[in-house]
């Protein structure tokens, strides 16, 4: 290489570095909302090459400027890596299956290469790179933020108010009875371990049998790397057990403070504060299937989750962690479980679920957007003729028995249905197996291109 070539090469490299950008994208949602499917699809779309007809609303692809994406091989070995290859192998397997669920957080780093649109940038370098770091973490952990504002006593009162509601009462009654009979003088390790295990079991039952969403502390259901840590030995005593100091009350208050100090705060400091943009996935259709109480709790849980994105000048979050999230995408997932003309209603429903908190967020710092999407479209849509009339329908492989079904799954209410409606009408949106996709094909989706444009479009100019 001559000195002139060398100089040009170095100038290019310097220019390249100046143009390269980094973006940390957080993906969250309560268990089962669709985080794993969303990330796997997002990465697959970005790494499958330039397919304008597949991503019509993703500008960089539409304009023919996208040069491709690849998994970074420089991701630090010390952090848990999102199991992309394993998840993709399940989806592309024969038969295809949904990826297994995960607990805890993980990260995946990508390098996206594109031609800059800006002439000046293009003259410095023939391509630019965006280093995209995707962080997957359970939405349950965001439900812990309010604990920082509460004392152990307040948390106990809040919890038991919730547990005594009709949809939780039957499950919580035996535990209340058990607590009432406790010897509060006994704060030994075996007693705490046993009680915490029973409380974790109760939370699991709430989640699985009563379809609840508001389960605290988040780490009891999704412990991540903290499984077995003594500060997770946490449970709410009955409000009437709080009036007098006792060894058990003292011990639990201590664990509660440690939990706030060593679990909640570090999560916000280490992960949350470094995120630039955030996706919050919400499975509204499963909540509708589960009924009125589930829907009401989903709304309450979302209100708590929203608190993490409201960090005006005087907020607790701002004072503690200085977050910098500038965009939040709220997405109603699994939109392929309904016919396409229902997507509008699904978006409106999610908007309504979120509206209350948005209205109250005087200091909302982040811009937000709401949409309905399917990370992986497992159904195809069409029409059937019924009694001489054309009826919209979808077809897919039913998850329960793997049979191909064609159906109209019903209408999505565009606003929160009143309690009485659930007595007259039972929502029954289906559940499908993943579609069969050929190896070289990109994963079918609904509106992932809109999501990509909102999340990355301006960074790929
Ligand atoms: N039809 C359809 N089902 C989905 C989609 N995303 C998720 N699911 C279903 O929801 C389940 C939970 O999704 P997952 O991504 O594991 O949720 P996570 O717990 O938030 O990571 C999956 O096993 C699928 O059954 C989607 O885009 N379309
Ligand atoms: Mg997951």
Short description:
The protein is of the alpha/beta class. 40% of the residues lie in helices and 15% in strands. The protein folds into three domains: 3-137 and 275-377 and 437-460, 3-Layer(aba) Sandwich (Rossmann fold); 150-270, no CATH class; 380-424, no CATH class.
Give a description of the structure.
The protein has 461 residues and is α/β, with parallel strands linked by helices. The chain is built from 16 helices and 10 strands. The strands form 2 sheets. It has a 7-stranded mixed β-sheet with strand order 2-3-4-1-5-6-7, with helices on both faces. The two termini are 32 Å apart. The model has no long low-confidence stretch (mean pLDDT 91). Magnesium ion binds at residues 35-36, 101-102.
């Amino acid at each position: 290489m001559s000195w002139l070539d060398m100089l040009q090469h170095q100038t290019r490299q310097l220019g390249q570095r100046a143009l390269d950008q980094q973006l940390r994208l957080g993906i969250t949602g309560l268990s089962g909302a669709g985080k794993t499917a969303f990330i796997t699809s997002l990465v697959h779309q970005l790494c499958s090459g330039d397919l304008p007809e597949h991503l019509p609303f993703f500008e960089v692809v539409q304009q023919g400027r996208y040069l491709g994406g690849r998994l970074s091989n420089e991701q630090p070995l010390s952090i848990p890596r999102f199991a992309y290859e394993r998840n993709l192998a399940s989806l592309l397997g024969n038969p295809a299956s949904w990826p297994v669920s995960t607990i805890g957080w993980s990260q995946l780093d990508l390098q996206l290469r594109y031609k800059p649109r800006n002439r000046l940038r293009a003259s410095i370098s023939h391509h630019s790179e965006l280093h995209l770091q995707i962080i997957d973490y359970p939405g349950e952990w965001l439900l812990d933020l309010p604990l920082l504002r509460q004392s152990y006593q307040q948390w106990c009162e809040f919890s038991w108010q919730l547990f005594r509601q009709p949809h939780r009462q039957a499950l919580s009654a035996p535990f209340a009875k058990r607590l009432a009979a406790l010897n509060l003088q006994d704060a030994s390790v075996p007693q705490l371990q046993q009680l915490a295990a029973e409380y974790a079991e109760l939370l699991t039952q709430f989640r699985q049998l009563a379809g609840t969403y508001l389960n605290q502390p988040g780490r009891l259901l999704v412990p991540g790397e903290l499984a077995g840590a003594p500060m997770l030995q946490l449970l709410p005593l009955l409000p009437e057990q709080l009036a007098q100091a006792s060894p058990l009350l003292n011990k639990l208050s201590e664990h509660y403070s440690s939990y706030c100090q060593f679990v909640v705060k570090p999560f916000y400091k280490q992960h949350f504060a470094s995120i630039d943009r955030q996706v919050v996935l919400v499975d509204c259709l499963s909540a509708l299937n589960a009924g009125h109480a589930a829907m009401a709790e989903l709304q309450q849980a979302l209100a708590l989750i929203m608190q993490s994105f409201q960090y005006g000048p005087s907020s607790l979050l701002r004072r503690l962690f200085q977050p910098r999230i500038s965009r939040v995408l709220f997405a109603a997932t699994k939109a392929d479980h309904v016919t396409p003309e229902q997507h509008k209603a699904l978006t409106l429903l999610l908007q309504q679920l979120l509206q209350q908190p948005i209205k109250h967020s005087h200091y909302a710092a982040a811009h937000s957007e709401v949409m309905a999407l399917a990370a992986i479209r497992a159904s195809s849509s069409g029409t059937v003729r019924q009694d001489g009339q054309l009826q919209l329908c979808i077809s897919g492989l039913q998850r329960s028995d793997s049979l191909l079904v064609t159906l109209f799954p019903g209408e999505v209410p565009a606003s929160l249905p009143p309690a009485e409606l659930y007595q007259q009408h039972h929502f029954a949106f289906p559940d499908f197996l993943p579609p069969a996709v050929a190896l070289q094909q990109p994963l079918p989706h609904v509106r992932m291109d809109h999501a990509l444009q909102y999340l990355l479009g301006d960074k790929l100019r």
